[in-house]
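User: Please predict structures.

Assistant: First:
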Amino acid sequence: MLEVINLRKEFTGVLAVDNISFTVKQGSIFGLLGPNGAGKTTTIRTILDIIRPTSGEIRFDGKPISSEFQNKTGYLPEERGLYKKSKVIDIIKYLAELKGLSASNASKHAVEWLKKLEIEQYKEKKLEELSKGNQQKIQFITAVIHDPSILILDEPFTGFDPINQQLIKDLILSLVNSGKIIILSTHQMELAEKLCSDILLINQGKEVCSGNVGDVRKRFGTNSVKIEFNGDGSFLNSLPYVQHLDAYNNYAEVELRNDVEPTKFLQDISTKIQLRHFSVIEPTLNRIFIDVIKKTSA
């Protein structure tokens, strides 16, 4: 179990992280979420012991983190930092050996992971010769090759098409099922909602929302419905009891006034558009993210 306790990090004149705490259990994905500049990267770098906290504590399995902890962690940063002029296989082997693998094990596991990610044919290529998506795969391999207990992923799906997003997602879930602790930092709220069991949303260095994803959605629940339809839905926003509307082409999420029953809304719109789907919904993590950040940034 990873524990972050009353973490505070202050730079000259800037309070980047302000007394945040969270716990991540084995075999779970924890979402560390927030807008740009919220303090996510500072928190991650403190966990990795790249920078030291001003105050607070980080514990793993009940003990303060130490140099031994470094080889138990894997980190996929948002910024790309691999050696573009070097061969793929050499990069992976070098970074694996830095994490404590022998040369023979580094070679063996490098080939295994290249096969898993369907890019074994590029092992003798220079990194700069690969597409951005395949470069991201190499960076992912370097984060997991040493079989870390804790894996920190910062925007891991950047640069991937839907097929490769699914491939990486399946690999992440297999790592969770094997008991790994995973911290996911992302702006893709839909993925966070599907993958994470618990989240911490921070803004301006402070916690603004945390807990189990399902509980968070219930806590911020509103009188909302989702509809799919044929026809012109431009009139929806003019209904007097519509509080908020997210409308797309033949799809909408509608927040109603609390004193209005969804059945009334259904009756009012059913003669104007052809409904294909109607359901009462809890707010998405994306909606909660936007609403909470707006309130705490005001």
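Second:
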Amino acid sequence: MGGLRPQQDAFGRALYDHHLGRTDWAVVERSDGAVEPMGMAPYLLPYAGWRAHKKKGIALAKGRALDVGCGAGRVALHLQRKGIDALGIDNSPMAVKLCKLRGVRKVRVLPVAQVSRKLGAFDTIVLYGNNFGLLENARRARWLLRRFAGMTSPAARILAETNDPYQTSNPLHLRYHRRNRAAGRMSGQVRIRVRYRDLATPYFDYLMVSKDEMRRIVDGTGWQIARFIDSPGSIYIAVLEKETER
């Protein structure tokens, strides 16, 4: 599977239009019919506007970096300015177009499942914007983490941002968790799509995990959890390092 077709590229088009001053939001629609607004402004924030946990995490980036799900390029642009060789990838052609417009030097349309050693070796893999979720489910996450291990240096690290789904009291979310578990899915394994005007992405799985679930997924993949970087809320960053380094 390559990049999204024009009628599917709702997120990228919303980002691009926001950059041009035409819109501030898209909509996330969950498989149970629940909808939430999705603001575009955070995806274009310069480093000065980032939350503290993101700043603390990105300070650990080194060497050659892969920015997975790069969106409008905020991470890649910051890394470039720090002198880090960064490659951004996204399955949204419009997002990639916007990255180039904003000055990202190395960016390409590529879904995360298609990353391979053909891209070269990396020292840092960044999954910001809760993009650990792009690994979709526990089985696929373990497969991709092993793939990441094979295309990174011995001292590489992954900066994986996610959201603990259990830190909620919202009955709508708790009911969705129960439905997931009854279907043999993880509680935080949501099936969603992004809608904007007359565009809609295909539905896709997006995984949110607790720290204990993160530990279980990472175990045996060639990575280990070096530390967690917390935010004031339910979002956190897991810093993963190669097992051979300990």
